[in-house]
Amino acid sequence: MLKGTQSKKRLVLFIAFGWALLILSNQVGDLKLYQGSFVATYALAITSIILLTGYSGQLSLGHSALMAVGAYAGALSIFNAGLNPIVSLIIAVLAAGTFGLILGVIAARLSGPYLAGTTLALAVSLPTLANQFSILGAEEGIVFDVGPAPARFGEDFSQYKWFFWISSLAALIMVWFIANLLSSRYGRTFKALRDNSIAAELSGINVGRVKVMAFALSSGVAGLSGALLVMLISGVSPSAFPLSLSFALLTGAVVTGLYNLKGVILGGLVLVAIPEIADSLVSRIGGSEGFTTTLPGFLVSALLILAVVFTPNGPGHLIKRKHHKQKVL
Amino acid sequence: MTQFITAVLTSLSSGAIYALMSIALVLVWRSTRVINFAQAGQAVLTTYIGYDLVQKTGSYWIALAGAVISGAIIGAVIDRFFMRPIFKRVKTGPIVMIAPVVATLGLLGIIQGLIGFKWGLTSQSIEAPVSTDGFKVMGTVIAFSRFNLLVLVFVSFAMLLLTLLFQRTNIGLALRASAYSPEIARLSGIKVDTVRTLGWAIAGASGGLAGMLYIPGYFLYPNAMDLLLVFGFVAAVIGGLESLFGAVAGAMILGFSINFATTYISGKLFFPTAFIVLVLVLLVKPAGLFGSKKSRGA
Amino acid sequence: MSLVVENLTIDHGAIRAISNVSFTVPQGELAAIIGANGAGKTTLLRTLSGLKESKSGSATWNGKSILGKRAEDLARSGIMHVSDGKSVIAELTVKENLALAGLWRKDKKDVAKATGEVVELFPILGQRMSQAAGSLSGGERQMLAIGRALIARPKLLLLDEPSLGLAPLIIEQIFQTIKSLVEKMDLTVLLVEQNAMGALKIADEGIVLNLGSVVAVDSAQTLLNDPAVRAAYLGF
Predict the structure, then answer these.
(1) Interface touch B99/A308, C-beta < 8 Å
(2) What domain range includes position B40?
(3) Chain B positions in Cβ-Cβ contact with residue C70 (cut-off 8 Å)
(4) pLDDT tens, position by position, C5-64
(5) CA max distance for chain A
(6) How close is the nearest chain C Cα to the Cα of B282, in Å?
(7) A125 touches chain B (CB under 8 A)
(8) Domain of residue B83, CATH code
């Protein structure tokens, strides 16, 4: 299929999907809208992981930190600078992207466990920085208030619907952008890097620069998802971005396929659904308080292992396997 | 002056515990090329077993032995029945590089989940066998206790044992050979798979010791060793992931940096220092202080 | 006890590296496999020593199949595979490298005796016992690799291009050593070599491999005199 028609098709698909979501949002209740917003946010975060790990082959455990950077940047721009919420989201992307750019320069020199270790240390230490500086709100954090929906949407337009619209739209735009990027020359370059960086270097790809770019892009996307996340919980604080968030997102990415974007919504759904499933399991089987709190994490981990064992390269793996066999030559 | 001495002593004792973790991680990395995140779960599980033993027998020492032994067994079981099948199954595609790591992450969650199911989430505690009050030096009480001294003694002893094992015994030679070149080891008739499981057992025992030496100062709950894992990992990376010596050196450097930073600059620098030291080291030596190009990457 | 290979086919990824290869090496004889680079010689050896799986066909030693077995098990049953000089572990000392082959053996006295014999055979190793194997020269490493294999008292020796990267004088020395080992120890040897001339000179029979298939099997002497072989592989 010609490149031109493919990207046109994609655009139409995304717009159609967006319309569908719009219509859907008028049919369902606030709870579903709220959950839907989380799905969109997580799907976006998973996209950033797929970009970085699935496509450019850099395993990072620090996405929670990148999300935090975006979240704080966004929160500060509303709270301290009084800027428009839409602008704050853009600032979140830029701030996180810039941070990712700097981080990427360090990361490009590292590989495998060294990169994992550095991003792990980052994920653990960055949130605690908020405690140092009072401008960052310390433990209690900063409020993130996008305000109510514009008056012209009418009185019945609930806050949750507004959340849903903002998060879905932001996610749609960003994912569309990344999808285009990944099917372009850049995406192929990323993949070349992941599969064999020596061969990539030999064919003229500036490995370091590409790695940094992937990192910066991924961080920008993560930053946006971080800002959206704190929008949903109405405030940012260090406890919103624990290490377990990085692990959960990685799980979501692996479970729904680390190597292409098709599964991101499913990944978001999985992450939102698991606590729900856990709740209903508990109410049926009954169990101690320890059981209730532990079950969601347990299910996520079990799912991760099953995914790695049974669909290690994502559900779309079976189709891709043919391509791989040919590529070996 | 006392502040300095205290800082040095506490650095030694926290460095010692980090060392136990980083040794465990380096051992598994060398033999299996995997960062075993589940180590945090294994170590806390063995500590819970130790906790049960303390409840039953009232003796810390029996609990310690139990934790170390169960650590070895659990480590061996995980390699034999979890890691080996995964390696067999996942052989193609880009996931090969990260599948084992991701699998250990999943295993960590499962172990912690199982702990939560069995023991619940309320924090427990294990009492130290000796005093945790600071020594009195020249009239002032320093932040270094008999228990800290015990930790140092135990860890030094463990290091000595491990060094003797690796350098002077046939099993140690087999372990080293299998880590350097599994293929040559196989061709020499060494059962590399069995040796690798042994490596996991030793790593598990090390984690078991780490848990019992760490928890008496803190509380015991399923996520109690997560932080120690992070520091152990950072220490291992700083040291270069190549040798036990590097693991210990990295742990000491980390311990000293963190303790001195928090003592002399600000108590809030506990986590950021780890990150800063790690980045500084890796900027100068991307393979870690004592690592070589060969050990970089998977 | 012979090595009997029948219709062996081996794939390397998507490439068929060896197709329908058959040959026999009688006990106590030295067979040389020659052929250009990429002919599949190394792949063949790695499959016989258990490092690689075959697609179809059979290979038996002493009547028992050696396919699909683990490398360490084959090594313990007397089949030793010596790669080129990379076959030593650079980070271990000479002494430790030699010790590897005897680690699993129960008869420690014999291991000591065998080690002594190896040192007699390659005195230079005795001088370098506590040096890291990585600091040895190419020829010394090859001797170390062969020496280590001998300590396991092998019955079948699979040698993969022992002359690779070595100076002519050393190559001569190594080939002579191999020849005398075969005679003295009743070893059966399968020698893979790019140095066709040197290999055929010491071999009893030769197998010519080209692009994964056997092109000729005959006594080494016949092959040495064969004009086609001479033209293709001996540079005449």
Answers:
(1) yes
(2) 2-295
(3) 186
(4) 999 999 887 888 888 999 999 999 999 998 887 778 888 999 999 998 889 999 999 889
(5) 63
(6) 24
(7) yes
(8) 1.10.3470
How many C-beta neighbours within 10 Å does residue B31 have?
23
Summarize pLDDT for A283-311 with one digit per residue, the tens: 777 666 667 778 888 888 888 888 888 87
Separation of alpha carbons C101 and C157, rounded Å: 14
pLDDT per residue as tens digits for the range C201-217: 999 999 988 888 888 88
What's the sign of the alpha-carbon dihedral A267, A271, A274, A276?
negative
Contact C71, C51 (CB under 8 A): yes
* B9 DSSP β-pair partners: none
Q: Report which DSSP code applies to C191.
A: E
Q: Which residues pair with C61 in a beta bridge?
A: C3, C64
Answer yes or no: are the C-beta atoms of A194 and A56 closer than 8 Å. Answer: yes
What are the distances in angstroms from CA B252 to CA A129, B3, B123, B260, C107?
24, 18, 29, 12, 43
Nearest partner of A237 among A139, A323, A110, judged by Cα: A139
Query: Above pLDDT 70, what percent of chain A?
Result: 87
pLDDT over 60 at A327, yes or no: no
Which pLDDT belongs to residue A2?
57
> Would an 8 Å CB–CB cutoff place A118 in contact with chain B?
yes
C3-90+154-234: CATH topology: Rossmann fold (3.40.50)
Of B177, B238, B272, B252, which is closest to residue B20 (Cα–Cα)?
B252
Burial annotation C23-44 (CB, 10 A radius, 16+ → b, else e): bebeebbbbbbbbeeebbbbbb
**Cα-to-chain-centroid distance, residue C214:** 18
Of B295 and B223, more confident: B223
Q: Which of B170, B180, B187 sits opposite C103 (nearest CB)?
A: B170
CA separation for the pair B179, B196 (Å, rounded): 8
* Subunits close to B (at least 3 CB pairs below 8 A): A, C
The predicted pLDDT at position A325 comes to 47
Residues of C in contact with A326 (CB under 8 A): 14
* Contact with chain B for residue C91, Cβ under 8 A: yes
Phi first, then psi, for residue B126 (nearest 5°) are -120, 130
Around C15, how many Cα atoms within 13 Å sit in the side-chain half-sphere?
12
The model's pTM: 0.86
pLDDT at C189 over 90: yes
Which of C91, C141, C148 to substitute to test the interface with B, most B CBs within 10 Å? C91
- Does the interface ipTM go beyond 0.85? yes
Confidence (pLDDT) at A299: 85
Q: What tokens appear for B295 in the block?
A: 């050990």
Give the rounded distance of the alpha carbon of B77 from its chain centre. 18
* Tokens standing for residue B177: 């050979």
For residue C181, report the phi and psi dihedrals to the nearest 5 degrees: -65, -45
Give start and end residues of each alpha helix (H) in chain C.
Answer: 41-48, 71-76, 94-102, 108-121, 123-127, 138-151, 168-185, 196-202, 220-225, 227-229
> Could you tell me the CA-to-CA distances from B125 to B52, B54, B221 in Å, in that order?
11, 10, 9
Three-state secondary-structure class, residue A183: coil
Question: Strand order of the sheet with strand C156-160?
Answer: C79-82, C156-160, C188-193, C30-34, C205-210, C213-219
Cα B228 to chain centroid distance, Å, stands at 8
How far is residue A308 CA from its own chain's centroid?
20
What distance in Å separates residue C169's CA from the closest CA in chain B?
Answer: 27
- Name subunits touching C (3+ CB pairs < 8 A): A, B
Going by pLDDT thresholds of 50, 70 and 90, the confidence category of residue A45 is very high
pLDDT for residue A187 is more than 90: no
Residue A328 has pLDDT above 60, yes or no: no
Tokens linked to B207: 């984690």
